[in-house]
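Question (not urgent): is this output format expected?
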Amino acid sequence: MSDSSPPFMAGANTVEEQRARWERKRSRTAKELLETEDKYLDQLDLVVTFFVTILKAKGTVKPAVLETIFGPLESIYSASQALSLHLERGNLALGLENFCQNLELYGHYAENLEQANKTLKEQLRKNKSFQRFKKLQESRPQFQGRKLEDLLPLPLQRLHQYKHFLRDLLENTSPDGAECQKLAKAVKSVYEVSRWVQDVIRKRENSLQLLRVQKLLKGQKIQVLTPGRWYIREGWLLVVPSKGEELKHRMFFLFSDLFIATKPCHPLHLLNSKKLACQAVYPLHQCVVDKVFGHTKSQGGLLSLCFPHKTLLLMSSDQEDIDDWYQSLTAAVRYASVFQRWKGLKEGGKT
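Got this back:
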Protein backbone atom coordinates (compact mmCIF):
# COMPACT_ATOMS: atom_id res chain seq x y z
CA MET A 1 0.00 0.00 0.00
CA SER A 2 1.41 3.38 -1.02
CA ASP A 3 2.27 6.04 1.63
CA SER A 4 1.71 8.94 -0.74
CA SER A 5 -1.21 11.27 0.08
CA PRO A 6 -4.18 11.51 -2.27
CA PRO A 7 -3.91 14.41 -4.80
CA PHE A 8 -6.56 16.50 -3.02
CA MET A 9 -4.66 16.15 0.30
CA ALA A 10 -1.39 17.24 -1.31
CA GLY A 11 -3.14 20.33 -2.68
CA ALA A 12 -4.56 21.12 0.73
CA ASN A 13 -1.08 20.89 2.27
CA THR A 14 0.27 23.27 -0.36
CA VAL A 15 -2.45 25.81 0.44
CA GLU A 16 -1.80 25.50 4.16
CA GLU A 17 1.94 25.90 3.62
CA GLN A 18 1.33 29.02 1.56
CA ARG A 19 -0.92 30.48 4.27
CA ALA A 20 1.72 29.69 6.89
CA ARG A 21 4.41 31.46 4.82
CA TRP A 22 2.15 34.47 4.40
CA GLU A 23 1.47 34.57 8.12
CA ARG A 24 5.18 34.39 9.04
CA LYS A 25 6.11 37.19 6.65
CA ARG A 26 3.09 39.23 7.72
CA SER A 27 3.98 38.86 11.41
CA ARG A 28 7.57 39.96 10.75
CA THR A 29 6.41 43.01 8.81
CA ALA A 30 3.82 43.95 11.46
CA LYS A 31 6.48 43.67 14.16
CA GLU A 32 8.92 45.83 12.19
CA LEU A 33 6.16 48.38 11.50
CA LEU A 34 5.44 48.67 15.25
CA GLU A 35 9.14 48.92 16.19
CA THR A 36 9.86 51.63 13.64
CA GLU A 37 6.62 53.46 14.52
CA ASP A 38 7.72 53.68 18.15
CA LYS A 39 11.13 55.07 17.10
CA TYR A 40 9.38 57.58 14.84
CA LEU A 41 7.12 58.60 17.74
CA ASP A 42 10.13 59.12 20.00
CA GLN A 43 11.61 61.51 17.45
CA LEU A 44 8.33 63.39 16.95
CA ASP A 45 8.01 63.61 20.73
CA LEU A 46 11.27 65.57 20.91
CA VAL A 47 9.79 68.27 18.68
CA VAL A 48 6.33 68.31 20.25
CA THR A 49 7.51 68.21 23.88
CA PHE A 50 10.67 70.31 23.81
CA PHE A 51 9.63 72.82 21.16
CA VAL A 52 5.92 73.13 20.34
CA THR A 53 4.49 72.69 23.87
CA ILE A 54 7.07 74.87 25.63
CA LEU A 55 7.02 77.58 22.95
CA LYS A 56 3.23 77.78 23.27
CA ALA A 57 3.55 78.24 27.02
CA LYS A 58 6.46 80.71 26.94
CA GLY A 59 5.23 82.82 24.01
CA THR A 60 8.77 83.13 22.63
CA VAL A 61 7.32 83.28 19.12
CA LYS A 62 3.90 84.46 17.96
CA PRO A 63 1.19 81.79 17.50
CA ALA A 64 1.08 82.38 13.73
CA VAL A 65 4.84 81.87 13.47
CA LEU A 66 4.63 78.71 15.58
CA GLU A 67 1.89 77.37 13.30
CA THR A 68 3.98 78.11 10.21
CA ILE A 69 7.12 76.41 11.51
CA PHE A 70 5.48 73.23 12.80
CA GLY A 71 2.32 73.00 10.69
CA PRO A 72 0.10 70.00 11.57
CA LEU A 73 2.93 68.19 13.39
CA GLU A 74 0.96 67.78 16.64
CA SER A 75 -1.94 66.17 14.74
CA ILE A 76 0.49 63.86 12.92
CA TYR A 77 1.96 62.90 16.30
CA SER A 78 -1.49 62.10 17.73
CA ALA A 79 -2.41 59.99 14.68
CA SER A 80 0.80 57.97 15.07
CA GLN A 81 0.17 57.47 18.78
CA ALA A 82 -3.23 55.97 17.97
CA LEU A 83 -1.72 53.76 15.26
CA SER A 84 1.00 52.51 17.63
CA LEU A 85 -1.62 51.60 20.24
CA HIS A 86 -3.62 49.58 17.68
CA LEU A 87 -0.48 47.80 16.49
CA GLU A 88 0.49 46.87 20.05
CA ARG A 89 -2.95 45.32 20.55
CA GLY A 90 -2.72 43.41 17.28
CA ASN A 91 -5.49 45.45 15.59
CA LEU A 92 -3.48 45.85 12.39
CA ALA A 93 -6.18 46.37 9.76
CA LEU A 94 -8.39 48.54 12.00
CA GLY A 95 -5.41 50.62 13.13
CA LEU A 96 -4.29 51.28 9.56
CA GLU A 97 -7.85 51.99 8.43
CA ASN A 98 -8.25 54.66 11.13
CA PHE A 99 -4.77 56.03 10.52
CA CYS A 100 -5.43 56.52 6.79
CA GLN A 101 -8.25 58.92 7.65
CA ASN A 102 -5.51 61.30 8.87
CA LEU A 103 -3.11 60.78 5.97
CA GLU A 104 -3.96 64.09 4.31
CA LEU A 105 -2.08 65.73 7.20
CA TYR A 106 1.12 64.52 5.51
CA GLY A 107 0.17 66.25 2.27
CA HIS A 108 -0.51 69.53 4.06
CA TYR A 109 2.73 69.12 6.01
CA ALA A 110 4.67 68.72 2.74
CA GLU A 111 3.04 71.82 1.25
CA ASN A 112 3.99 73.83 4.32
CA LEU A 113 7.57 72.56 4.76
CA GLU A 114 9.31 75.07 2.47
CA GLN A 115 7.66 78.01 4.21
CA ALA A 116 8.40 76.37 7.56
CA ASN A 117 12.12 76.29 6.81
CA LYS A 118 12.10 79.90 5.60
CA THR A 119 10.29 81.08 8.73
CA LEU A 120 12.62 79.09 10.98
CA LYS A 121 15.68 80.72 9.38
CA GLU A 122 14.07 84.12 9.65
CA GLN A 123 13.31 83.65 13.36
CA LEU A 124 16.86 82.47 14.05
CA ARG A 125 18.14 85.61 12.38
CA LYS A 126 15.77 88.10 14.01
CA ASN A 127 14.62 86.57 17.30
CA LYS A 128 17.54 86.23 19.72
CA SER A 129 15.34 84.68 22.42
CA PHE A 130 14.24 81.93 20.06
CA GLN A 131 17.82 81.44 18.92
CA ARG A 132 18.96 80.85 22.52
CA PHE A 133 15.95 78.62 23.25
CA LYS A 134 16.62 76.41 20.22
CA LYS A 135 20.29 76.03 21.09
CA LEU A 136 19.43 75.09 24.69
CA GLN A 137 16.83 72.48 23.69
CA GLU A 138 19.11 70.86 21.10
CA SER A 139 21.86 70.53 23.73
CA ARG A 140 19.67 68.16 25.78
CA PRO A 141 20.94 64.55 25.83
CA GLN A 142 17.66 63.28 24.32
CA PHE A 143 18.51 65.01 21.03
CA GLN A 144 21.84 63.18 20.66
CA GLY A 145 23.31 66.05 18.66
CA ARG A 146 20.35 66.34 16.28
CA LYS A 147 19.05 69.75 15.24
CA LEU A 148 15.44 70.83 14.82
CA GLU A 149 16.15 71.10 11.07
CA ASP A 150 17.02 67.37 11.05
CA LEU A 151 13.72 66.42 12.70
CA LEU A 152 11.24 68.51 10.70
CA PRO A 153 11.44 66.37 7.50
CA LEU A 154 10.77 63.13 9.46
CA PRO A 155 7.04 62.81 8.56
CA LEU A 156 7.81 62.80 4.84
CA GLN A 157 10.53 60.17 5.32
CA ARG A 158 8.09 58.08 7.37
CA LEU A 159 5.41 58.34 4.68
CA HIS A 160 7.83 56.73 2.23
CA GLN A 161 8.38 53.88 4.70
CA TYR A 162 4.62 53.37 5.14
CA LYS A 163 4.35 52.63 1.42
CA HIS A 164 6.72 49.68 1.68
CA PHE A 165 5.32 48.31 4.95
CA LEU A 166 1.71 48.38 3.78
CA ARG A 167 2.55 46.88 0.41
CA ASP A 168 4.41 44.00 2.10
CA LEU A 169 1.52 43.45 4.51
CA LEU A 170 -0.98 43.32 1.66
CA GLU A 171 1.16 40.89 -0.35
CA ASN A 172 1.27 38.51 2.64
CA THR A 173 -2.39 38.65 3.62
CA SER A 174 -4.83 36.03 2.41
CA PRO A 175 -6.78 37.57 -0.49
CA ASP A 176 -10.13 36.05 0.52
CA GLY A 177 -10.92 38.09 3.59
CA ALA A 178 -12.19 41.44 4.90
CA GLU A 179 -8.73 42.28 6.29
CA CYS A 180 -7.23 42.12 2.80
CA GLN A 181 -9.81 44.62 1.55
CA LYS A 182 -9.01 47.02 4.40
CA LEU A 183 -5.28 46.73 3.72
CA ALA A 184 -5.82 47.28 -0.01
CA LYS A 185 -7.75 50.46 0.78
CA ALA A 186 -4.97 51.61 3.13
CA VAL A 187 -2.30 50.96 0.48
CA LYS A 188 -4.29 52.98 -2.05
CA SER A 189 -4.60 55.89 0.40
CA VAL A 190 -0.88 55.90 1.21
CA TYR A 191 0.07 55.81 -2.47
CA GLU A 192 -2.30 58.68 -3.28
CA VAL A 193 -0.86 60.88 -0.54
CA SER A 194 2.68 59.87 -1.56
CA ARG A 195 1.97 61.07 -5.11
CA TRP A 196 0.63 64.32 -3.65
CA VAL A 197 3.82 64.78 -1.60
CA GLN A 198 6.07 63.86 -4.53
CA ASP A 199 4.27 66.43 -6.67
CA VAL A 200 4.84 69.08 -3.99
CA ILE A 201 8.55 68.17 -3.82
CA ARG A 202 8.88 68.14 -7.61
CA LYS A 203 7.30 71.60 -7.92
CA ARG A 204 9.55 72.94 -5.17
CA GLU A 205 12.68 71.56 -6.85
CA ASN A 206 11.53 72.99 -10.19
CA SER A 207 11.04 76.45 -8.63
CA LEU A 208 14.57 76.30 -7.22
CA GLN A 209 15.96 75.41 -10.67
CA LEU A 210 14.05 78.28 -12.32
CA LEU A 211 15.30 80.70 -9.67
CA ARG A 212 18.88 79.46 -10.10
CA VAL A 213 18.76 80.01 -13.87
CA GLN A 214 17.15 83.43 -13.43
CA LYS A 215 20.06 84.47 -11.20
CA LEU A 216 22.57 83.16 -13.75
CA LEU A 217 21.20 85.38 -16.50
CA LYS A 218 22.31 88.98 -16.86
CA GLY A 219 19.49 91.52 -16.64
CA GLN A 220 15.78 90.79 -17.07
CA LYS A 221 15.55 90.14 -20.81
CA ILE A 222 13.67 86.93 -20.10
CA GLN A 223 11.48 86.19 -17.10
CA VAL A 224 12.37 82.58 -16.29
CA LEU A 225 10.16 82.36 -13.19
CA THR A 226 6.80 81.82 -14.87
CA PRO A 227 3.92 79.67 -13.54
CA GLY A 228 3.55 76.40 -15.42
CA ARG A 229 7.12 76.37 -16.76
CA TRP A 230 9.29 73.33 -16.08
CA TYR A 231 13.07 73.18 -16.14
CA ILE A 232 14.36 70.22 -18.19
CA ARG A 233 18.11 70.50 -18.71
CA GLU A 234 21.07 72.70 -19.64
CA GLY A 235 24.49 72.33 -21.23
CA TRP A 236 27.13 73.56 -23.63
CA LEU A 237 26.72 72.98 -27.38
CA LEU A 238 28.52 74.20 -30.47
CA VAL A 239 26.50 76.40 -32.81
CA VAL A 240 27.33 75.75 -36.48
CA PRO A 241 27.04 79.07 -38.39
CA SER A 242 25.34 79.11 -41.79
CA LYS A 243 28.10 81.08 -43.55
CA GLY A 244 31.19 79.05 -42.74
CA GLU A 245 32.24 81.10 -39.73
CA GLU A 246 33.86 79.60 -36.64
CA LEU A 247 31.88 77.31 -34.37
CA LYS A 248 30.41 79.16 -31.39
CA HIS A 249 30.40 77.65 -27.91
CA ARG A 250 27.08 78.48 -26.24
CA MET A 251 25.21 77.51 -23.10
CA PHE A 252 21.62 76.39 -23.70
CA PHE A 253 18.73 76.05 -21.26
CA LEU A 254 15.77 73.85 -22.13
CA PHE A 255 12.38 74.39 -20.50
CA SER A 256 8.95 72.93 -21.16
CA ASP A 257 8.06 75.87 -23.43
CA LEU A 258 11.34 77.64 -24.29
CA PHE A 259 14.86 77.03 -25.53
CA ILE A 260 17.29 79.75 -24.46
CA ALA A 261 20.72 80.43 -25.97
CA THR A 262 23.29 82.28 -23.83
CA LYS A 263 26.96 83.18 -23.82
CA PRO A 264 29.31 84.05 -20.93
CA CYS A 265 29.67 87.69 -19.98
CA HIS A 266 33.15 89.23 -20.09
CA PRO A 267 35.29 87.71 -17.30
CA LEU A 268 36.51 91.18 -16.25
CA HIS A 269 33.05 92.71 -15.92
CA LEU A 270 32.63 94.07 -12.37
CA LEU A 271 29.06 92.82 -11.81
CA ASN A 272 28.40 90.13 -14.39
CA SER A 273 31.70 88.23 -14.73
CA LYS A 274 30.07 84.97 -13.61
CA LYS A 275 26.77 85.49 -15.43
CA LEU A 276 25.42 84.58 -18.85
CA ALA A 277 24.02 86.97 -21.43
CA CYS A 278 20.79 85.85 -23.08
CA GLN A 279 21.24 85.85 -26.86
CA ALA A 280 18.01 84.31 -28.11
CA VAL A 281 14.76 82.84 -26.83
CA TYR A 282 13.03 80.23 -29.00
CA PRO A 283 9.41 79.15 -28.33
CA LEU A 284 9.22 75.38 -28.69
CA HIS A 285 5.65 74.89 -29.92
CA GLN A 286 6.68 75.75 -33.53
CA CYS A 287 9.98 73.87 -33.48
CA VAL A 288 10.93 70.82 -35.58
CA VAL A 289 13.86 68.76 -34.26
CA ASP A 290 15.90 66.41 -36.40
CA LYS A 291 19.22 64.57 -36.30
CA VAL A 292 21.45 65.60 -39.19
CA PHE A 293 23.97 63.00 -38.17
CA GLY A 294 24.61 61.04 -35.04
CA HIS A 295 22.39 58.04 -35.75
CA THR A 296 25.36 55.68 -35.50
CA LYS A 297 27.85 55.20 -32.69
CA SER A 298 30.24 57.71 -34.22
CA GLN A 299 31.80 60.54 -32.24
CA GLY A 300 29.09 63.07 -31.47
CA GLY A 301 26.40 64.37 -33.75
CA LEU A 302 24.54 67.34 -35.22
CA LEU A 303 20.99 68.46 -34.46
CA SER A 304 18.78 70.69 -36.58
CA LEU A 305 16.19 72.87 -34.84
CA CYS A 306 13.86 74.58 -37.30
CA PHE A 307 11.80 77.56 -36.09
CA PRO A 308 9.55 79.74 -38.34
CA HIS A 309 12.27 82.35 -38.94
CA LYS A 310 15.44 80.58 -37.85
CA THR A 311 17.28 77.26 -38.17
CA LEU A 312 19.78 76.25 -35.50
CA LEU A 313 22.48 73.67 -36.14
CA LEU A 314 23.86 72.39 -32.85
CA MET A 315 26.81 70.05 -32.51
CA SER A 316 28.49 68.02 -29.78
CA SER A 317 31.47 65.67 -29.91
CA ASP A 318 29.85 63.55 -27.18
CA GLN A 319 27.54 60.92 -28.67
CA GLU A 320 25.64 60.28 -25.43
CA ASP A 321 25.18 64.00 -24.84
CA ILE A 322 23.76 64.68 -28.30
CA ASP A 323 21.41 61.70 -27.98
CA ASP A 324 20.17 63.01 -24.62
CA TRP A 325 19.63 66.48 -26.10
CA TYR A 326 17.69 65.00 -29.02
CA GLN A 327 15.39 63.00 -26.74
CA SER A 328 14.86 65.93 -24.35
CA LEU A 329 14.16 68.41 -27.16
CA THR A 330 11.80 66.03 -28.97
CA ALA A 331 9.79 65.40 -25.80
CA ALA A 332 9.72 69.12 -24.90
CA VAL A 333 8.55 70.14 -28.39
CA ARG A 334 5.80 67.53 -28.30
CA TYR A 335 4.65 68.74 -24.90
CA ALA A 336 4.79 72.43 -25.90
CA SER A 337 2.80 71.77 -29.08
CA VAL A 338 0.06 69.87 -27.24
CA PHE A 339 -0.09 72.52 -24.52
CA GLN A 340 -0.34 75.32 -27.09
CA ARG A 341 -3.23 73.57 -28.88
CA TRP A 342 -5.00 73.01 -25.56
CA LYS A 343 -4.47 76.66 -24.62
CA GLY A 344 -5.88 77.78 -27.98
CA LEU A 345 -8.97 75.60 -27.57
CA LYS A 346 -9.49 76.88 -24.04
CA GLU A 347 -9.19 80.51 -25.09
CA GLY A 348 -11.44 79.88 -28.11
CA GLY A 349 -14.08 78.41 -25.83
CA LYS A 350 -14.18 81.62 -23.77
CA THR A 351 -14.90 83.88 -26.74
